[in-house]
Structures are given as structure tokens and as C-alpha cells.
Amino acid sequence: MKRTMLWLLALLLIVCTGIPAYAQGKEWETLLGRIMALSGQGRYDDATVVATKALQVAEKAVGPDHPSVAKSLNILAELYRSQGQYAQAEPLYKRSLAIRESALGPNHLDVATSLNNLALLYHTQGRYAEAEPLYKRSLAITEKALGPNHPDVAMSLNNLAGLYDTQGEYAQAEPLYKRSLAINEKALGPNHPDVANTLNNLAALYRSQGHFSQAEPLYKRSLAIREKALGPDHPKVAVSLNSLALFYEQQGQYAQAEPLYKRSAAILEKALGPDHPDVATSLNNLAMLYHTQGQYAQAEPLLKRSLAITEKALGPDHPQVAVSLNNLAGFYQSQGQYAQAEPFYKRSLAILEKALGPDHPQVATNLNNLALLYDKQGQYGQAEPLYKRSLAIAEKALGPDHPDVAMSLNNLAALYTSQGRYAQSEPLQKRSLAIWEKALGPDHPQVAMSLNNLAALYTSQGQYAQAEPLLMRSLAITEKALGPDHPQVAAHLDILAVLHYTQGHYAQAEPLYERSLAITEKAFGPDHPDVATCLQNIAALKRKTNRVKEADALEKRAAAIRAIER
Predict the structure, then answer these.
(1) What is the pTM for the complete model shown?
(2) Is 546 a member of any domain?
(3) Are 166 and 128 in contact (CB under 8 A)?
(4) Number of compact structural domains in the chain
(5) Which residues contact 501 (CB under 8 A, 6 or more apart)?
(6) Which helix (H) or strand (E) holds 350?
(7) Owning domain of residue 32
(8) pLDDT digits over 56-73, tens only?
(9) Phi, psi of 17, rounded to the nearest 5 degrees
(10) What CATH number corresponds to the domain at position 527?
């Protein structure tokens, strides 16, 4: 969203010279200034009204086929895209492109801009096969017109890299991001804000692959550049703070993430006002951090405020509203409030299907989440077709080897395991594991999760000898990737402990449970619901080994934690 609006502002600065400065031209320029102001405030509905009028003024002044009309069409299309009104944006982008090709020739830089923007629309809609040739043609025009080392070439490379990144084609994305970075550093200097943009994107690519040691210095350098170049209170500084916070959160470093999220939100509220969509995104991210830590009383009002802002600013049917609804549903689901979660998931799904079409990858994600809600309640008959449809969409949109396909396979396999349909589960689990290993490498945390699930399948069948080495490898991957004190390490220790407990190997299970408890208390504090679960597990073991008083004390503490209102 933020990149979109910055690109829009750049276009507006260019178009002001497109019409001669007589009465209609001056009116048009005034309207453009108004669009910029409204867009900057997140008032996209109002900006769209003004942009529609600006288009009419331009058409009247210079005729329907003038390049200045193409620029006005492009601005209006950008506004519709920003609001998730993709069906309205597409014909405007196409008409803008056609005017520019006819008036300026097929190799003009304005044609490259139109191609890029239409590609971005298709990219957003998950129409990746349509987006790619447009991005490539835009890049070719820009390279030919400006030379291979121009900053606009860097921008085109970055956009094409982003398309590959979205599809999990990391090996294709990385060299493009790196070339974009090298061009910008050489052309603009190492401390230019555009360098920071590419650093942030490359860091996100590494984070997605679990290459945390490569990602962190890039995030930090991006933040430092933006603070120095733009000042500490610029919205782009807030973006960098948010990215670095997400990086720390993913690694379980919650104490480091929280102040970054808070500072990001404060900057955006001050710069953009309390009702801007970017403020909503920032509030949502802080809420999810609190959610993860079990601080539900702090999370819920932020999630609700985020949803209210997004609905007001973008309208009730925008994809960003769907994201907010999905997160609020997940919040209720995590607390077992399934009846409250279901309508939010369903409304989120309906919005995405309407806005993006029934075969978009985000629709697949939401189907998966709704299926998981039914799965948690043992409503397997409702969950299975949703999991299957999610898998079919992901395979069609992203290809059979994308990590999102692996996730869909994993969840469908887990459903079959829960139902005792082991012969159906195993090939899905194995295919899921193979995809993740190929896409992310053998030492990624997602690989560890997949190993756990395959081990769970074997454990369910009493095949403990097959399960244990998988769990040991999973634990080793997680400790190496995330550090020995990450909450996911605690979860893996619990699973391994359960394997030993199930076999009556209490002496082997107990230190694993104890270490899991220590990690969980350190990460979340002594009163988190997960601490209660750990205490309950240890109590069961102690009761099994005739240490009744110790078990009673642990159960009492667990009950006290669960009695806390959140």
C-alpha cells in the first residue's frame, strides 16, 4: 500500500505539465494537487471523486486520445487499485496504455510506466502469468531508453523480483533484487532512500527463507538510511521499524519487537492522522504481537480499532478489511471462541472472493483458515472440502512446488491423521516435506514443522522408532534457526516429551517438559496460557510417577493461570 501511494505521488508531479496553462489546464492542475492531498490523508473515496473530475477536464481540454488524458486515467486507476476496486481499475489502465502506445510509440517510457502499473494490478490479483510479460516488457523499454544502470531500471527489476518472490521463486528473485540494489547504490549513493527500499525487500526475501543472519543487517541498514535521509518521524521510517519488529517477533524476541511496533504506530498516527489505513496496519501488527504473547486484553481493542479504521477508509469490501477480519477471527479461535470466529472468517472469505476472484491465493489462505476452525471442532466433514479447494487453488495459482501448496497439503494430511486415515495422510505429508525442503532448504523452521507432523502420523500408529529421529531432527533445525530459547523450541520439546511419555520413558520425558516450561516462562511470562499447559504436562508425569504432592501443586498453579481474565 505504501509503495503504491508513493508511486502515485510521483506520477502526479509529472503530469502537471501535460496540459497548456490556460483555464482548463489550471483547473486540472488544481485538481491534481487536491488528489495528492486527499491521497496522502488516506481519503481515497474523496480523491477518486476529484480524479474523475480531473479526467473529464483533461478530455475536454485536449481530446480523449492525448497523453495527458492517459496520465489522468492512470491516476484514477491507481486510486481504484488502492481501494481494491480492481474491476474498475483494469479498463482505465488498459485505455491509458493504448493511448500512450498510439501517441508516443511502443518504446516510450510512459508506455513502460503503464505496463508496470497494469502488471502490478495483475500481480495484486494473483494473475501472475499475465503480470510477468508486462513487467518484462516494461523493464526492456526502460533499459533501452535509459541504459542498464538507471534508477528506473532498478525499480523495474525490483518489481519483477517481487513477482517471483510472491510465487516462492526465490532463486529468480534474489539476483534481481541484488542487481536493483547495486544500480541504486552506484547511481544514487549508498545512503539514498531508494537503496533503503531495495534493502528492505531483499531482507524480507531472506527472512522468508529463514536466512535470519543475512536479513537482520539489511533491515538495520535500511532503517538507518531512512532515519538519516528522511528524519526520524517519516512514514518510511515507520515501515522499516515495522519490518524489523516483524523480524524480531518471528524469532520470538518479543521484548525487542514491541517498542519498534509502538514507535512505528506513533510515527504513522502523527504523520498521517489516526484514521489512515497505514495506522490500521501498524495497530494490527502490534495486536498480533500481544496475541502471540497471550496478552488478549491488550490485543483485542487494537484489532477492533484496526478493523474500524480500515472499513471507514477503504470501504467494507476492501481486501485489507478481509485481512483485519481474518486476524480478529484467528484471535477468537485461539481462545476457543469458535462461534465468534466463524462469521469473521466467512465475511473475510466473501470479501476476497468478490474482490480478487474465487481462485486467488489469498482466497486459498482464507479457505484454509476456515477449514482449520472446523477441524479444531472435529467438524471434519465441513473442513475437508475447504482444505481440498484451498489446495487446488494454490496449485493452480502458484504451481505444485510453492510453499503455500506445502501448507495446504500439510493441513489436509493432518485432518486425515486425526480421522485415522493414515494411508491417505502419509503421501501428503511426505510431499509437503519435499516441497519445503526444496523451496526453503533443509534447515528452515517450516521443514521442522513438517517433520513434526510426519512424526505425529507415525506416533498415532505406534511407530515410535520412525517418529523419534524425525522429532530429533526437527528440534535441531529449530534450535539452530531460531535459537535455543524460542517458543517454537519449547513446542518441539513438548512433542518429543510426549513421545517418550507415551512409551513410559518418564525419565527421558521429564527434562524435556521442564526445559519447555523454562523457555515458555521466559518468553511469555509466568501467567501465559502456554505456561499452564506446560505445568499440566509436568503434573501428569509426576502423578504417573507417584509424586502426588508435586503434581497437586503444579495443577493448582495451572488452574490459577487459567482463571486469569485476559
Answers:
(1) 0.84
(2) yes
(3) yes
(4) 2
(5) 509, 540, 541, 544
(6) helix 338-356
(7) 1-146
(8) 999 999 999 999 999 999
(9) -100, 5
(10) 1.25.40.10
